[in-house]
Specification:
- The chain is built from 12 helices and 10 strands.
- It is α/β, with parallel strands linked by helices.
- The chain has one domain: 3-Layer(aba) Sandwich (Rossmann fold).
- The strands form 2 sheets. Strands 2-3-5-4-7-8-9-10 form an 8-stranded mixed β-sheet, with helices on both faces. Strands 1-6 form a two-stranded antiparallel sheet.
- Helix 1 runs parallel beside helix 5 and helix 6 (225-231) crosses helix 7 (239-246).
- The longest helix has 23 residues, at 3-25.
- It starts with a helix and ends with a helix.
- This is Haloalkane dehalogenase.
C-alpha cells in the first residue's frame, strides 16, 4: 500500500469511526447540537483521593466554554514554587501533557525542578485530568483547545518569560501557542511530539501504530486509558499509578476529549486545521529562541527521530538534543529524573 493510499484509507477510517462514536455515545442525531443535561461534567473529587506521589495543591481557572453561551468550563492546574531555603531562579516552566494523560504525568518531574529553584505550572487540558469535561463532543476541536489554552496561559495566568515543556498533543498545541506568542517564551523543550500539517509523507512504521490508535480509541467502549499509558512505557507501572490515569474518567461520558483528540490529527492538506499549522510553521522556521528536543528511543511514533523539529527551527541548532534509551512514548514515566535534569541543564545554559 502506498503512502497516499494509506492516507486515504485512514481519512475514511477517521470519518467512519467518528460516526461510530456518535452511535456509541447516544447523543442527539442533529450534528453539532449539545446533548441534553449539563454542558460540562466534573469528575468527583474522591476519584483523586490518595493518588501516589501527587501531593500538589489544586488551582482552578474558569474559562469560556466556547459554545456561544455564557457557560464556563473549569481548568485545573498545578502551580508549584520554590520555598525557603531554596532560592528562586526566576524561571517559570509551563508543562503541557498530551493524550490520554494529565498533569499527573509530570509528578516526578516537577519536584526536582522546584528544588532547582524553578516555578512549575502544569495544566490539565480541558476534558482531561481534574479539568471539566464538556458533554458536547463537537466542542473538542483543535481551535477550541487553542482558545482554552490561550485564555488560560496568556489572559488569566499572564505567564511571561516562560520555558515551554510540551509532550504529545501538548506539543501540537503548545508549539502553536509559542508561534502565536513568541515574546512570552524564553525557550522550549519538545518531547515525543510534532507539528504536522497533513502534507508530510509519514513514516509507515510509526504511522501504522498511530492508525491503530485512531481506530482503537473510536471503537472501544469502555476505553482503557491506563492500558494505553502502560502500553507505551518501558517500565512496569504500579496498579495505583494505573488507577490514577483512569481516575479522571468515571464513565464514557467523560471520555469525549480523549476520543476526539485522535481524530483531530491532520491526515490531508484539506484538513480544517492545516492552515493554522502552516501559519505556525512560518513563525517557527524563523524562531531563534533556544529549542531542545528530548525524545524516547522506543517511542512508537517517532522512534526517537526529532529532526522534523530540530532540523527546521533555527533555535534548535547546536543544542544538546537527547534521545533517552529505555524510554517509550511516556518518557516522563520511564525516565523522569533524566527528563528533569535535561530541562534544568537547558535552562541554566541558556539563561539571559
Amino acid at each position: 500500500m502506498t503512502e497516499i493510499d494509506r492516507r486515504r484509507l485512514l481519512a475514511g477510517t477517521a470519518a467512519l469511526t467518528a460516526g461510530t462514536l456518535g452511535a456509541a455515545s447516544a447523543l442527539p442525531a442533529t450534528a453539532g447540537r449539545p446533548s441534553p443535561g449539563p454542558r460540562v461534567l466534573r469528575t468527583p473529587d474522591h476519584r483523586f483521593t490518595g493518588l501516589p506521589d501527587y501531593p500538589f495543591e489544586p488551582h482552578h481557572l474558569r474559562l469560556r466554554l466556547g459554545d456561544g453561551s455564557r457557560a464556563k468550563v473549569r481548568m485545573h492546574y498545578v502551580d508549584e514554587r520554590p520555598a525557603w531555603p531554596v532560592r528562586a531562579s526566576g524561571e517559570t516552566i509551563l508543562l503541557l501533557h498530551g493524550n490520554p494523560s494529565w498533569s499527573y504525568l509530570y509528578r516526578h518531574v516537577i519536584p526536582p525542578l522546584v528544588a532547582a529553584g524553578h516555578r512549575c505550572v502544569a495544566l490539565d487540558l480541558v476534558g482531561m485530568g481534574k479539568s471539566d469535561k464538556p458533554t458536547d463532543r463537537f466542542l473538542y476541536t483543535y481551535q477550541q483547545h487553542m482558545d482554552w489554552l490561550s485564555e488560560a496561559v496568556i489572559e488569566r495566568l499572564d505567564l511571561r518569560d516562560v520555558t515551554l515543556v510540551c509532550h504529545d498533543w501538548g506539543g501540537t498545541l503548545g508549539l502553536r501557542l509559542l508561534a502565536e506568542h513568541p515574546g512570552r517564551f524564553r525557550r522550549a523543550v519538545a518531547m515525543n511530539t510534532g507539528l504536522r500539517t497533513g502534507r508530510e509523507e509519514l513514516p509507515a512504521e510509526g504511522w501504522r501504530g498511530l492508525a491503530t490508535w485512531l481506530q482503537f480509541t473510536q471503537r472501544t467502549n469502555p476505553l482503557n486509558v491506563s492500558g494505553i499509558v502502560a502500553g507505551y512505557t518501558t517500565s512496569a507501572l504500579d496498579p495505583a499509578v494505573l488507577a490514577a490515569y483512569d481516575a479522571p474518567f468515571p464513565d464514557d461520558r467523560h471520555l469525549h476529549g480523549v476520543r476526539r483528540f485522535a481524530v483531530l490529527i491532520p491526515l490531508t492538506p484539506d484538513d480544517e486545521a492545516t492552515p493554522a499549522f502552516e501559519a505556525a510553521w512560518e513563525v517557527l522556521e524563523t524562531l531563534d529562541l533556544p529549542f531542545l528536543c528530548v525524545f524516547g528511543q522506543d517511542d512508537h511514533v517517532t522512534g526517537g527521530r526529532h529532526d522534523e523539529l530540530s532540523g527546521r527551527i533555527p533555535g534548535a541548532t547546536g543544542q544538546p538534543h537527547t534521545v533517552l534509551t529505555g524510554a517509550h512514548h511516556f518518557l516522563q514515566e520511564d525516565k523522569p529524573h533524566e527528563v528533569a535534569a535535561a530541562i534544568d541543564d537547558f535552562i541554566r545554559r541558556t539563561r539571559p
